[in-house]
């Protein structure tokens, strides 16, 4: 996240007047994150996160995101619980933006995740997939191949400003990945952005998952691909086979993968890598810099794309090694 929209104390006091959360003691903008504006609030009752939904979040999708958090939480998954307003609604408005108040989750995200963290993330991901099986709402993935196409059209002409040759290289990948994209694999509700900054740990144990604002219905194994990309590469862009093996073993200890999912894994990893390369590239080229805005490097994900291009089978990710 970041802070795209600032709020005044008066606005916040008026907003909180609609919620059974006591009186405001303090608030501050949170610089971490990418998509929305987040504030940490302390009230006389407790601590909360206030999220103002920004450009990539459609207001019509909020019942899906907030309902999913409620659903998962009721099923024992540790995630924030949206706070209901006095009138029973989950969504309010502040500074002209739709906004929600969610409970604060204790824990820290891991800047250098270990093999043990990766295993726990794999387990938690599979547990979420299973817990969401009976979630009644549906949301199409806005960042599936069709959505990537819109992003790519919006920035391919300027891609070489970030790296000479990027437009040609990514264009070839884009065509290959989209041309082979699978549709006949097990699907369900996926988190779709389970990066280390969205998973908290306390004393070495996974304590919670946040940021469900890309969640949608899509291929379950695509969520694993995103996790392999986000958790199992080192800073020098090398793939850590031990971490990959642990993440996959953690997942499979809860939900074993079908052969077709394993076969598709290299392509799903390539697809997930280009998806994050594209959102980062688009943001890099279109969002103005600001003190509370943190843009992410698209080339980090170009390096992932290059790695996955030469993978031939899921065993190269560590399937069956842990
Ligand atoms: N429920 C929560 N409990 C504790 N901290 C939170 C919670 N939700 C968000 N945060 C903090 O806000 C930051 C940004 O939140 P995130 O949902 O990732 O934003 P965005 O959707 O904009 O990327 C997180 O890295 C974390 O520090
Ligand atoms: N995880 C994405 C950006 C989305 O940010 P988040 O703070 O919502 O996780 C990326 O790394 O590109």
From TrEMBL:
Domain Aminoglycoside phosphotransferase: residue ranges: 27-257
Q: In which pathway does it act?
A: Amino-acid biosynthesis; L-threonine biosynthesis; L-threonine from L-aspartate: step 4/5
Xref: InterPro entries: Aminoglycoside_PTrfase, Homoserine_kinase_II, Kinase-like_dom_sf, Pseudomonas-type_ThrB
What's an example of a GO molecular-function annotation for this chain?
Answer: ATP binding
Annotated SUPFAM superfamilies = Protein kinase-like (PK-like)
Asked whether the keyword ATP-binding is assigned, the reply is: yes
Q: Which NCBIfam families match?
A: PRK05231.1, thrB_alt
Name of protein: Homoserine kinase
Q: Which gene encodes it?
A: thrB
């Amino acid at each position: 996240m970041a802070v795209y929209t600032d709020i005044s104390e008066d606005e916040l006091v008026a907003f909180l007047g609609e919620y059974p959360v006591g009186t405001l003691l303090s608030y501050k903008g949170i610089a971490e994150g990418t998509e929305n504006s987040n504030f940490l609030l302390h009230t006389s009752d407790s601590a909360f996160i206030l999220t103002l939904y920004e450009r990539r979040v459609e207001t019509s999708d909020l019942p899906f995101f907030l309902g999913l958090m409620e659903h998962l939480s009721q099923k024992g998954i540790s995630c924030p619980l949206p706070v209901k307003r006095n009138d029973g609604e989950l969504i309010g408005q502040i500074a002209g933006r739709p906004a929600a108040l969610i409970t604060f989750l204790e824990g820290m995200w891991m800047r250098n995740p270990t093999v043990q963290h990766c295993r726990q993330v794999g387990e938690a991901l599979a547990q979420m997939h299973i817990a969401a099986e009976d979630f009644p709402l549906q949301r199409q993935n806005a960042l599936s191949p069709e959505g990537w196409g819109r992003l790519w059209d919006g920035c391919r002409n300027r891609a070489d400003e970030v790296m000479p040759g990027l437009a040609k290289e990514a264009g070839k990948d884009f065509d290959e990945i989209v041309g082979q994209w699978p549709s006949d694999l097990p699907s369900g509700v996926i988190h779709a952005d389970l990066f280390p900054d969205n998973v908290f740990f306390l004393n070495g144990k996974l304590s919670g998952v946040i940021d469900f604002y890309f969640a949608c219905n899509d291929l379950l194994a695509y969520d694993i691909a995103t996790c392999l990309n986000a958790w199992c590469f080192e800073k020098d862009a090398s793939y850590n086979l031990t971490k990959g093996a642990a993440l996959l073993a953690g997942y499979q200890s809860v939900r074993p993968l079908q052969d077709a999912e394993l076969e598709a894994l290299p392509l799903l990893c390539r697809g997930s890598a280009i998806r994050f390369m594209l959102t980062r590239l688009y943001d890099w080229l279109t969002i103005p810099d600001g003190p509370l805005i943190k843009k992410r490097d698209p080339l980090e994900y170009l390096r992932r794309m290059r790695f996955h291009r030469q993978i031939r089978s899921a065993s190269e990710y560590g399937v069956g090694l842990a």
